[in-house]
Amino acid sequence: MDKLKEQTCEACRVGAPQVTDEEIKILRGEIPEWDLVKEEGISKLQRIFVFGNFIDALNFTHRVGVEAEHEDHHPRITTEWGKVTVTWWTHKIKGLHQNDFIMAAKTDALKD
C-alpha cells in the first residue's frame, strides 16, 4: 500500500462502501496515534494535538483547513488554548472511507 499521506482523496458519493474492519486494521498501522471513536453510531477518527500556546494551535488549525480545502474533504476541528482536536469521517456515507485515513495521515504530517 502506498503511504497514506502521499495519496489523494477520491470523490465519495452517497452509497460508497465504508472501509471494512479488516481494512481499518491495516490503515490504522499508518496512523497509530488516532483513536477510533463512535458518535451517534458513526465511526470516526479522532486525535488531539497538543501545543504550547493558542497561536500555535490556531496556526495548525489553519494548515489543516487549507489541506482539507485542497482535498475537498473537511473535518471537525476544535481549537482551544494549547490543543486542537481533529475528527475525520465521511458525512455522505455516515462512516469511515479511505479518504479519512488519507487525511488523518496528512494531518499528522502538518504537525511536524
Describe the structure.
The protein is of the alpha+beta class. It has a single domain, classed as Gyrase A, domain 2 (2-Layer Sandwich), CATH 3.30.1360. It has three helices and four strands, in the order H-E-E-H-E-E-H. Strands 1-2-4-3 form a four-stranded antiparallel beta sheet, covered by helices on one side. Helix 2 runs antiparallel to helix 3 (98-111). The longest helix has 18 residues, at 54-71. The protein is globular, with a radius of gyration of 13 Å. The model has no long low-confidence stretch (mean pLDDT 93).
Provide the descriptors you would attach to this structure in a database record.
112 residues; Gyrase A, domain 2; 4-stranded antiparallel sheet; globular
Query: Strand fraction band?
Result: 15-25%
Please name the CATH topology.
Gyrase A, domain 2
Tell me the number of strands: 4
Q: Structural class of the helix and strand makeup?
A: alpha+beta
Q: Helix segment count?
A: 3
* Low-pLDDT regions: none
The CATH homologous superfamily:
Transcriptional coactivator/pterin dehydratase
Order of helices and strands: HEEHEEH
Main sheet, how many strands, which sense, barrel?
4 strands, antiparallel
